[in-house]
Amino acid sequence: MTEAPPRRRLVDLSPLREPAFGRLWIGGAISGIGAQLTVVAVGLQIFDMTGSTLAVGLVGGIALLPMIIAGLWGGVLADAFDRRRVLIVSSLVAWFATLGLVALSMADAATRGSEHAIPVWPFYIVTTIATVAATISGATRSAITPRILPQHLISRAAALNGISMGVQLTLGPALAGVLVATAGFSTTFAVDAVLFTAGFLGIVTLPALKPDGAAPRAGLQSLRDGLVFLRQAPNIRTSFLVDIVAMTFGRPFALLPAVAALAVGGGAITVGILTAAAALGTFLTSLFSGPVAHVHRYGVAIARSIMIYGGCVAMLGLVVAVMQTGWFGPVGESFAEVNIPALVIAAIAMAGTGASDEVSAIFRSTMMLTATPDAMQGRLQGIFTVVVAGGPRLGDLYVGILATAVGLWFPPLFGGLAIIALIAVIMRAQPSFRNYDARNPQP
């Protein structure tokens, strides 16, 4: 029998003592800083070129269908082939896409204002390629975890992954704001390309991770088998659904360039601060994640954390609505023209979204990894990756359309309240999810 883990407040570092996981985790944290830097810089680049929040939101909307296909097919590949090899190839594709962004930003800087200025659509193509590669990498990386760690360390590894993501989302956006403001877009993307090398070292030093037993043939039947399993897995299916609700109606990041320009002020630096605030919430939650080993009612924990998330998103929308009345004076894109009280409240709201989303993520990912058999991990992780990455892209499209049609304040305020209501309905309709007990994991 596995001994009960000791009571602790801080995160448990035991998974890092497993060499393969430790190298993968450290490399992923470093390269992820560059990836998040690029996510913010692409939004700033497109907003700088077009002045349109809808154009920024289209980054996610255009990539959505290719990302869905990549997630599903990437999961099939992860179950059919050596997961290390799949991760190497997909990571290299993402790196070449980053080099493409370097070239495009240099071309934009050289031709801006002339009759030969480049259009915005090449950025959509390159970011879509990067999204496809990152989706396949994400599905494969997650499917690797239960192969290189014992089951009792999975929830603690999920918390450590939250710390990694917190570091990425704290340093990446903050660095993006500073680099874009001081060195320009091409240098910002080039930094991502350099940081990639650390993550790649963590990947190439993994052991071979060929399928256990008879590998499923990579094809449509393998994908159908994964979907059949999901239909018979109500708890995992509901965990996907609640995350889609949260990310579709509560994804404020595509709004931030406009919020920084029109509501709070401060331009690129404010975008970096608000994005980093969300990451700080993620990081602190993961840092003090010791008690997760003693939580067993995963469904209840997930639902409550997502409701809190919705409340924080609504709080951000309220700040934007109040600031757009003009009662508190004008703001501008220079950081000297920022409204400090509004920035502080907005940052608190963003930190709350990061903290509550991380609680949900820890329990959702642990449920996924412990309740799914290894032979099905890749395909289910592919679907999971589509949900985790697809929800935010639906959210980007949602805020882009409604911010343009109604107002900048409407998508977060309405969306936050919608999240709270919808999660309450789902919990009432899904008793098995509400009663889920991690001591007896059932898909």
Automatic annotation (TrEMBL):
Under the heading SUPFAM superfamilies, the entry gives:
MFS general substrate transporter (SSF103473)
Membrane topology note: Multi-pass membrane protein
Q: Where in the cell is it found?
A: Cell inner membrane
Q: Name one GO cellular component term.
A: plasma membrane
Please indicate if the UniProt record lists Transport as a keyword. Answer: yes
Positions of transmembrane segments: 21-47, 53-74, 86-106, 118-137, 158-183, 189-209, 269-294, 306-328, 340-363, 409-429
Record-linked Pfam families: MFS_3 (PF05977)
Assigned keywords, A-Z? Cell membrane, Membrane, Transmembrane, Transmembrane helix, Transport
Coiled coil spans? none
Q: Which PANTHER family does this one have?
A: ENTEROBACTIN EXPORTER ENTS, INTEGRAL MEMBRANE EFFLUX PROTEIN-RELATED
Q: What is this protein called?
A: Transmembrane secretion effector
